[in-house]
């Protein structure tokens, strides 16, 4: 019971801190996040030109403008934010990196931009999920090639997912499975149980549409 009370207190403290942070944010900070989420490059450029900080606004799961642009597959916006020194070391509540979210978004351009910014291709989130394992399920051969070229570990596994090859085979991504096999990957055998939710899948960002007209 004491452990549960401590965990609840930690969650409440985190929520209060983020609420206070949001109250201190300007409308421009939130607008930058929204432009990034929707892939509106011109809007992002305009606000950055007005010295709006790229990391000033954080969503309820810890997403920054860079994270949400990466998850949306907006490669040009991702590259621009990185050029303006958006923080690459930000993580969402499940411990997922910007690179994991870029892979989730499926844009090779966004993934390449994040890798060129020196993101770790083998960083795990709290569930042990790596960018390459997620790419296995998503099925993007071009994205997987970028990760392998960046020295992603093809043998790394995650509970409930297995390896990248296991994920590709389970999702029916035959072309990607063939590519990974050609790189020397072998099936690790998917771990028992139902897989955990992938990065960002639990957050319905589209629900924000219509709240404000930026």
Care to describe what's here?
The chain is mainly alpha-helical. The chain has two domains: 26-119, Serine Threonine Protein Phosphatase 5, Tetratricopeptide repeat; 126-191, Ankyrin repeat-containing domain (Serine Threonine Protein Phosphatase 5, Tetratricopeptide repeat), CATH 1.25.40.20. It contains eleven helices and two strands. It has a two-stranded antiparallel ribbon. β1 (157-158) and β2 form a beta hairpin. The longest helix has 22 residues, at 2-23. The model is unreliable at 202-211 (pLDDT under 50).
Q: Considering DSSP H and I runs of 4 or more, what fraction of the residues is helical?
A: 40-55%
Radius of gyration: 18 Å
Strand content: under 5%
Query: How many domains in all?
Result: 2
For the record, the CATH class of the largest domain is Mainly Alpha
Number of distinct beta strands: 2
Q: Strands across the major sheet, in which order? A: 1-2
Distance between the termini: 46 Å
Give the helix/strand class: mainly alpha
